[in-house]
Specification:
By secondary structure, this protein is of the alpha+beta class. It is built from 2 helices and 6 strands, in the order E-H-E-E-H-E-E-E. Helix content is 23%, strand content 19%. Strand 2 and strand 3 form a beta hairpin. The longest helix is centred in the middle third of the chain and has 20 residues.
Length: 159
């Protein structure tokens, strides 16, 4: 028999400091969100109770809506960053119905990837052989990446 008499309680917003490793990772992901979707409020952590007295933590929109799998325990801050980035991407893409984040070079959605012990946003690259997959930027650092100038493109004003 379930310990919940009238069904499980609803989700709750997680207070800052309850899960410090995930808080730090979410802060980095929210920096990327602020740069790429400035109109979107910051993401939050929400917890859903389980029948054993524990809870499952998810990355949610500011209103508490979440999508995707719960965050699994991790052994390092770098792994937490990759896990939170992937969970944030699931929530944003499924609930806002848009690719996120998008590579400014190719206009394609990127995915959280792992390389040399760091979490990155990875782009699948263009369609041609000279335009391979690439790591676009570290998770939390998309604000440091600028679109490169395109050769042969004239500046506004005819200069």
């Amino acid at each position: 028999m379930s310990p919940f008499v009238f069904g499980p309680p609803g989700p709750r917003f997680v207070a800052v400091g309850e899960y410090p490793v995930w808080d730090e990772a979410l802060a980095a992901v929210n920096r990327d969100l602020a740069v790429t979707l400035p109109e979107q409020p910051a993401l939050r952590l929400v917890a859903y109770p389980d029948e054993d007295g524990g809870e499952w933590v998810h990355v949610a929109l500011a209103n508490g809506d979440a999508h995707g799998n719960a965050l699994e325990p991790v052994s390092s801050a770098a792994e937490a960053l990759r896990a939170v980035a992937g969970a944030a991407q699931d929530t944003v893409m499924e609930l806002l119905w848009r690719a996120w984040p998008v590579c400014t070079l190719h206009g394609l959605g990127m995915h959280a990837a792992w390389d040399a012990g760091r979490a990155y946003w990875r782009c699948a690259g263009g369609t041609g052989p000279g335009d391979p997959a690439h790591l676009r930027g570290a998770v939390g650092e998309l604000d440091t990446i600028h679109r490169p100038p395109r050769p042969g493109r004239r500046r506004r004003g005819g200069r």
